[in-house]
Amino acid sequence: MSAALQRNIDKEAAARIAAADALQGRIATLESRLNDAGALAAAFSALVPNARATNNTQVSLGVGNYGGSNALAAGMFHYVGHNVLLNAGVSTAFNNHGTAVRAGVTFGW
Hints:
Layout: H1 3-45, E1 57-66, E2 69-81, E3 84-93, E4 99-107
């Protein structure tokens, strides 16, 4: 094999290794972000209004963990009337500092 051919093979191999390493880094970042999303969702799911509360406004806190990521959520619930509940919340993950927000309204009859 000629020296020029060997250099081309070595150059191509190095480029493919670098591309594989870059892809592995992107996959690891995506995995971390997905774990954060799971933790955010778990923390949000802990925000539940207290049906036995006697006042119209309530505050709720929740924590979540998924795949080694942790998150904290805070929410507020407010009964506008007997049949309408407004709610809002915010959650933040600690690993990548991702933050999510939510809001909703519930009607009853």
